[in-house]
Amino acid sequence: MTGETTLYPNFRILLVDDEPTWLRSLSLTLKSVAGLTNLVTCDDSRRVMEMLDGGGIGMVLLDLTMPHLSGEELLKAIAERHPEITTIVVSGLNQLETAVRCMKLGAFDYFIKTDEEDRIVGGVLRAVRVLEMQRDYREMSNRLVSGELRHPEVFADIVTADRGMLGIFAYLEAVAKSPQPLLITGESGVGKELLARAAHRLSGCRGKLVTVNVAGLDDSVFADTLFGHLRGAFTGAEAPRKGMVEEAADGTLFLDEIGDLSIPSQVKLLRLLQEGEYFPLGSDQPKRIKARVIVATHQNIAAKEGAGTFRRDLYFRLRTHQVKVPPLRERKGDIPLLLDHFLAEAAEALGKKKPTPPKGLAQFLATYSFPGNVRELRAMVYDAVSLHRDRMLSMEAFVQAVEGARESLPAPAPAPRDNPFAGFADLPTFADAACFLVMEAMARANGNQTLAARLLGISQPALNKRLKMMRSQPG
After folding, report:
1. Strand 292-297 and strand 287-288: pairing?
2. Residue range 12-136, CATH number
3. What are the φ and ψ backbone dihedral angles of 39, each rounded to 5 degrees?
4. DSSP for 239-264, written as a single string
5. What pLDDT shows up at residue 414?
6. Cβ(213)–Cβ(192) below 8 Å
7. Which fold has domain 329-408?
């Protein structure tokens, strides 16, 4: 992320050459073309090691032919005393033997001063990305091993005690300051936008979080929305307009429903991520992106890539950092927490006193698959609280919501059910089979007869009668 208030990358790049003119030229090129602003220069090779000893420098661009200390001498010294620093040689000598010798001494790359500007800039950017990935890996390893959250307050809006979710929080903390894109996948309603907000807060970016839902945007609208346009760029463009990329400067650009992008729009997004630049419509002058990019989708991007509807190069660029948010049915332990949270939230929003949930409500909700996930549970709670009149919340409102949702779901394709008794050497009697079913239903319902009766498809009085019969039987 670059900008007037933010230096990029987060480590300094030292340019070493005894020609001040070349230093100024290279600095200007790296700033204007590559967006690299965290630069320092040195025109006296004798000061280099002292500067490196001071810390904060992650990369050195080094000339070879200099008075006092030659580039090769410095290259050896850097490899010995600061092996963690990446060194790139930018020399006036176009000699294969010299290049090979420098690479053996530990140089990351070797360029000739007369090389095309794009080649030198591309090499420096590649080295920057390698260093960033190494730093991300170290950070992730340290954070995930410790398992502790340094900023739990950032996740306060996400109600969970699930180990998988807490692992996602730790991962987001580890990659928060990485400039690489972050991909968030998961079903609709699991809270992908909440995680994007948390990642933005963790990043420390001074800019704002700008959210764009790209579902349904055709290629031209996508380009105009993201990149903006100049006056007269197309019919009706009577005034220039900034795009969302520029609005998110020094902040985070969150693109939701990325799986719906057309192939032409995917190409534009890939260029934005790969080259770090974009063209407003009607302009032939590129602009540098100054925002972290987070994308989200409920679709299976890997499957779409396999089917040829999502570009492989874009998919691999996006999956550098990725999290998959589990659906609510896979973290049912969160249902009581979410229920309590949404009851309080709904009561405050509707100007009511927080109602008391009926006993067994959380267990009943745990029997439902929640295809709409946390968003569906929230809507269910709000609806129940809006109808609430007495102190105790009505169980019936939730029962009707669940049963109505189940009826509205498309009927599953008929499939033969496996006979659970097939293969039994000795079949149980009808009475024994009924007892086993009742015992299993009561276990799943945590002893709640109302819920167990619903699981069995019988009335509560009928279940109660069956339980009494079972207790009265000997053995």
Report:
1. unpaired
2. 3.40.50.2300
3. -115, 145
4. S-EE-HHHHTTTSEEEEE-GGG--HH
5. 52
6. no
7. Helicase, Ruva Protein; domain 3 (1.10.8)
Q: What is the CATH number of domain 147-326?
A: 3.40.50.300
Residue 442 in tokens: 């009561």
Q: How far is CA 452 from CA 159, 361, 407, in A?
A: 28, 12, 20
**pTM, 2 dp:** 0.70
- Residues 190-231: tens digit of each pLDDT: 999 999 999 999 998 889 999 999 998 999 999 999 999 988
Predicted pLDDT of residue 2: 41
Number of H helices, E strands in the chain: 19, 14
DSSP string across 299-319? S-HHHHHHHTSS-HHHHHHHT
- Written as six digits, the tokens of 229 are 């346009």
- What Rg, from alpha-carbon coordinates, does the chain have? 31
Amino acid at 43: D
In total, the chain counts a number of residues equal to 475
Q: Is 400 exposed, middle or buried (0-12, 13-18, 19+ CB in 10 A)?
A: middle
Give, for 324, the enclosing helix (H) or strand (E): strand 321-324
Name the nearest CA neighbour of 84 among 54, 109, 52: 52
306-316 average pLDDT score: 92
The tokens for 4 are 């007037």
Distances in Å between the Cα of 230 and the Cα atoms of 31, 133, 202, 279, 282 are 24, 36, 34, 10, 6
Tokens describing residue 385: 């609280």
Q: Compute the mean pLDDT over every residue in the chain, rounded to the nearest whole number.
A: 88
CATH code of domain 430-472: 1.10.10
